[in-house]
TrEMBL record:
<dbReference type="Pfam" id="PF20149">
    <property type="entry name" value="DUF6532"/>
</dbReference>
<protein>
    <recommendedName>
        <fullName>DUF6532 domain-containing protein</fullName>
    </recommendedName>
</protein>
<dbReference type="InterPro" id="IPR045341">
    <property type="entry name" value="DUF6532"/>
</dbReference>
<feature type="domain" description="DUF6532">
    <location>
        <begin position="4"/>
        <end position="152"/>
    </location>
</feature>
Length: 186
């Protein structure tokens, strides 16, 4: 399903990229601190984005309580997934509830990781954030396929596999986003 959409619908890819563009810079702290002079901001962003790509740090989110790497666990991933697949204009999850009701398909997580790579590539190459690479099957298909391989490899791991599976489990996503809303039944 994802491959079909990924390959054929350029507006779909473009909108996913726009969603990622709105999330990635702030979520990955790619906004230069005030101590960086204005004339050096572009170079600072370029360097920071290149560092995230170089070590694939954008795929990780620190370490867990056991001191082990949290792969594909960055909160930006979840924010982008919910914004695009569940609440955005496409609401693909509503069109295919049997697929999206209980968990995020692995292919969708790989797609989000690939689009993050695309956005970071744009910042690393153009630093000003005004132009980004084309998020096409030709350019990012190999990265998407590699993301799928990495995800499958993680799922096979005795420690990291269950953690990734739990992160992809979407039971309670809606409730978690609105847990501040309560009623009192006296």
């Amino acid at each position: 399903m994802t491959l079909l959409l990924y390959d054929d619908l350029s507006t779909w890819r473009s909108d996913l990229k726009k969603t990622a563009i709105s999330t990635v810079p702030v979520s990955y702290s790619l906004v230069p601190p005030l101590s960086v002079p204005v004339q050096e901001c572009a170079a600072w962003i370029k360097h920071a984005a290149a560092e995230l790509i170089k070590g694939s740090f954008f795929l990780r989110f620190g370490v867990d309580e056991q001191g082990r790497t949290q792969n594909f666990a960055h909160p930006a991933r979840c924010e982008t997934v919910i914004s695009f697949f569940y609440t955005g204009p496409y609401r693909i999850a509503r069109r295919m509830p049997e697929i999206f009701r209980t968990e995020l398909p692995l292919s969708c997580l790989a797609l989000v990781a690939a689009v993050f790579n695309c956005v970071l590539d744009g910042l690393a190459k153009n630093e000003h954030g005004k132009s980004y690479p084309n998020f096409s099957m030709k350019d990012y298909g190999p990265i998407y396929c590699r993301m799928l391989e990495l995800l499958k490899y993680i799922l096979e791991d005795a420690y990291h596999g269950p953690r990734l599976a739990a992160a992809m489990n979407l039971k309670g996503v809606d409730e978690a986003r609105h847990d501040h809303l309560q009623i009192l039944l006296d």
